Amino acid sequence: MQSSNSQEAVLGLRLIGVVHLLPLPGAPRFSGSMAAVLEAAMRDAAALAEGGADGIIVENFGDVPFRAGRVDAETVAAMTLAVERVSAEAQLPIGVNVLRNDAASALGIAAATGASFVRVNVHAGAAVCDQGVIGGRADETLRLRAALFPDPVTRPAILADVHVKHAAPLGASEIGRAALDTHLRGLADGLIVSGGGTGSGVDVGDIERVRAVLPDVPLFIGSGFTPANAAQLIAAGKRPFGAIVGTYLKEDGDVARPVDPARVAAVAACFTG
């Protein structure tokens, strides 16, 4: 289990690489082989570690169409096994994102595996997306985290999206105001700002608007971070600032292909150059 120092370290991560899991048992596109799912996950985890990623987040990316709420028991079981294997393979801080918005299952997986953080796509407010209308459940998530991790120093960090990708905020919701609510009222430990979809670039103005109201909160780019735009995004994000990168790290930037360690190294260098 993590210590308070390790939770602080999670919020200071610079490059978090994504392990996009293949379709899991119960998903329409599941191949029938959990062994193949685990093999691909461990391969990508090893490549992320080799290339210099600071942490890894595991997502049930292949499970489209996603559940709007709680996922099925077989999804939780499969993800728990995958997170455990990825953690053993990479020896890096590991996060969990149970799509589309199952924070409870993500925390349960973290409790079983010792994962260091979870990502919550809609933590506060509400969003309209392809699953319909999804509402934040910060109240339930924070209480469940406290119940599963009575000692505060063992609690995984909560990284929450502000105006999450593949969605539109419900009602009038300026991003700075949404960020304040997510952090100060939803008690998210860190915030994520993304573009419109997977691999889409982020509006620098959105980063600046969040930074204007929360200059010290840990902030992560959630999509579209590449060596070509890294300098501009890092300058806007200041510190503490990092990026969750998936698509660019794949061979030829194709989200369906394996992670390329050389691309990981190229992105990691953006934070050290």
Concise overview:
The chain has 273 residues and is α/β, with parallel strands linked by helices.
Account of the 3D structure:
By secondary structure, the chain is an alpha/beta fold. It has one domain (4-270): Aldolase class I (TIM Barrel, Alpha-Beta Barrel). Helix content is 38%, strand content 18%. The chain has 9 helices and 11 strands. It has helices at 4-11, 34-51, 73-90, 103-113, 138-148, 175-185, 204-213, 230-237, 261-270; strands spanning 15-20, 55-59, 94-97, 117-120, 126-129, 132-135, 157-162, 167-169, 190-193, 219-221, 241-245. The protein has an 8-stranded parallel beta barrel with strand order 1-2-3-4-7-9-10-11, surrounded by 8 helices. The chain has a 3-stranded antiparallel beta sheet with strand order 6-5-8, with no helix packed on it. Helix 8 (230-237) links the parallel strand 10 and strand 11 (241-245). The radius of gyration is 17 Å and the shape is globular. The two termini are 32 Å apart.
